[in-house]
Write a structure and sequence with these properties.
Blueprint (H helix, E strand, L loop, with lengths): L3 E6 L17 E6 L24 H10 L6 E7 L6 H15 L7 H14 L4 E4 L29 E7 L14 E3 L5 H12 L7 H10 L4 H4 L1
Parallel strand pairs: 3-5, 3-6, 4-5
Antiparallel strand pairs: 1-2
Protein name: NB-ARC domain-containing protein
């Protein structure tokens, strides 16, 4: 339903004819205003959708606990994966700039700052910093006052930040000490499902051979896929 605005006027001063009926009270007029357009969501994900995704309920449950649907700011980290350097960070922020339609001539610190400020202005947003393995780029272990990429990570009352890293020390530095989830070996059924996807088969008949191969690959998703 369209939003409405009401106005109220007194009828006591009007000239009325002989057959007029007066209803005591104020006359109300409603004006319906057009809907305000909802801002379009901006998505800047530089990777295709992973069609071979295997549901890992243990990770999802933990992540949902750390990053609930809320209007407040929150952050968490998945650690145990792999490789983001400064060049990748810069390229990903350039992708966001293109999606926003901002000045493509922006470079380096100006580009990073433009993305940060745009994100901070949004009521709801999610920023995923994938493969942040070199924590020093974000100030971990650096002298206080040293310029780092962390100053370009938006800090706002609302919004969600998810980090992924191979370095366990991301906990207690870039996120709280209890706001990390370790991504380790897959469960046997999960690993088997992923291997079958990689082989493009519904189900392997060689259970013993499949198990031996998965053990050789240490049940690690990157190795299996």
């Amino acid at each position: 339903m369209k939003p409405s605005v009401s106005s109220c006027r007194d009828v006591s001063g009007n000239q009325l004819g002989d057959n007029a009926t007066i209803i005591q009270g104020d006359a109300h007029t409603h004006y319906h205003l057009p809907h305000q357009p909802t801002p379009a969501a901006v998505r800047a994900i530089p990777y295709p959708r992973n069609e071979d995704l295997v549901h890992r309920p243990d990770l999802v449950i933990k992540l949902n606990q750390l990053l609930p649907q809320t209007t407040e700011s929150c952050s968490a980290a998945l650690w145990g994966l792999g490789g983001l350097g400064e060049a990748t960070f810069s390229q990903d922020y350039k992708t966001i700039v293109r999606k926003l339609g901002a000045d493509k001539a922006l470079k380096d610190e100006d580009l990073f700052a433009a993305v940060r400020e745009y994100i901070k202005l949004q009521l709801q947003w999610v920023l995923i910093l994938d493969n942040a393995d070199d924590l020093a780029l974000f100030g971990v272990g650096r002298a206080e006052g040293t310029a780092t990429l962390f100053e370009y990570i938006p800090q706002a009352p609302a919004g969600t930040i998810l980090w992924t890293s191979r370095d366990e020390h991301i906990m207690g530095t870039l996120v709280g000490s209890r706001r990390g989830v370790r991504v380790g070996r897959m469960a046997p059924d999960e690993a088997t499902e992923l291997l079958n996807m990689a082989r493009n088969v519904e189900k392997s008949e060689d259970v013993v051979g499949t198990t031996a191969l998965l053990e050789e690959l240490q049940w690690l998703p990157l190795a299996i896929s």
